[in-house]
Amino acid sequence: MGGDIRVEDVGGSLMRSDKHYVGIIVTFSHDMIYKQIGYDNFIRQFVTYPNRFSNSFWNHALPNKPKLDVAYCYALWDGEIRYRANIAAFEEAQAKTFRDGRTIYGGAWMLLSAPVIKAPERIEMKGFQGFRYCEELF
């Protein structure tokens, strides 16, 4: 998919009705992927398990729940949008403790499910805090 990526900031007041937002782009922390979880373990938990087991979800903390109804989460890290996952559900603010002992507080929680699809081509984008609404990217 060539051309510019059309996105909208969470707090953006410029949302127009002619745009059809189907997803959000979220920056995944480099520290979380490579240091806290480890890259191979992250890929196993984020991509392999949800695609293999129907009861497997990736829990991702957000500062707040999106106001628009969106179906996809595009995962961004190291300057590229790398995957798209389905958004299965949102949960309210809470602290969650994971099997590896990490406890994380989220203003909202997004549960991501299969299919988790690798981007078909390189989509460069700088990381940011929060999330951005977007049209379908792939």
TL;DR of this structure?
The chain is α+β, with helices and mostly antiparallel strands.
Question: Would you mind describing this structure in some detail?
Answer:
- The chain has helices at residues 30-37, 39-52; strands at residues 7-9, 23-27, 58-62, 72-77, 80-97, 103-118, 131-134.
- It has 138 residues and is of the alpha+beta class.
- It has one domain (19-134): Archaeosine Trna-guanine Transglycosylase, Chain: A, domain 4 (Roll), CATH 2.30.130.
- Strand 4 (72-77) and strand 5 (80-97) form a beta hairpin.
Secondary-structure blueprint:
Blueprint: E1 7-9, E2 23-27, H1 30-37, H2 39-52, E3 58-62, E4 72-77, E5 80-97, E6 103-118, E7 131-134
Parallel strand pairs: 2-4
Antiparallel strand pairs: 1-7, 2-7, 3-6, 4-5, 5-6
Helix pairs in contact: 1-2
